């Protein structure tokens, strides 16, 4: 057995591993929307305190975020969730989702060094200026911690 190859493979796997405790979720939606309510309930009960924020689209600033996402990516559904790994935006997920499907998306986005927009298809946003604009817009400039 080639021990060097094995050690390198383990190092790569560790580098690609993601824990839910490293992620922060910002969901934009409405409490009148059944999918939004279900996702909010699931994230509230599953994630550590401070790792999830629900932003109601009844507020003008949150409506503006969704309008910008529509203009950029033609996203027409709610909920929309921005998923950050630490301070870095990794995934914009449109629609309801299961947490076990998020980790591979975060790893894929990290490997490419881009933001993955998961809507009707996967789209990678790699332009630094656009990524910075998305990070600022979707986090509100701060994390809930």
Count the strands? 6
What do the pLDDT scores average to?
Answer: 87
Shape: globular
Largest sheet: 6 strands, mixed
Q: Any overview of this molecule?
A:
With 145 residues, this protein is an alpha/beta fold. The protein has one domain (19-139): 3-Layer(aba) Sandwich (Glutaredoxin), CATH 3.40.30.10. It contains five helices and six strands, in the order H-E-H-E-H-E-E-H-E-E-H. The chain has a six-stranded mixed sheet with strand order 2-1-3-4-5-6, with helices on both faces. The relative contact order is 0.16.
What's this model, at a glance?
The protein is an alpha/beta fold. Helix content is 44%, strand content 23%.
What attributes does this structure have?
Glutaredoxin, 145 residues, 6 strands, alpha/beta, six-stranded mixed beta sheet
Please describe the topology of this protein:
Elements lengths: L2 H14 L6 E7 L4 H13 L5 E5 L3 H14 L6 E6 L2 E7 L7 H11 L2 E4 L3 E4 L2 H12 L6
Parallel strand pairs: 1-2, 4-5
Antiparallel strand pairs: 1-3, 3-4, 5-6
């Amino acid at each position: 057995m080639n021990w060097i190859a094995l050690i390198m493979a383990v190092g790569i796997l560790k580098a690609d591993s993601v824990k839910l405790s490293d992620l922060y979720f910002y969901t934009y939606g409405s409490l009148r929307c059944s999918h939004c309510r279900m996702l909010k309930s699931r994230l509230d009960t599953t994630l550590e305190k401070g790792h999830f924020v629900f932003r109601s689209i009844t507020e003008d600033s949150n409506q503006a975020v969704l309008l910008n996402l529509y203009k950029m990516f033609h996203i027409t559904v709610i909920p929309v969730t921005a998923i950050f790994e630490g301070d870095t935006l990794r995934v914009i997920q449109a629609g309801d989702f299961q947490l076990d499907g998020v980790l591979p998306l975060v790893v894929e986005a990290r490997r490419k060094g881009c933001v993955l927009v998961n809507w009707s298809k996967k789209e990678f946003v790699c332009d630094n200026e656009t990524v910075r604009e998305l990070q600022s817009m979707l986090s509100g400039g701060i994390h809930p911690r």
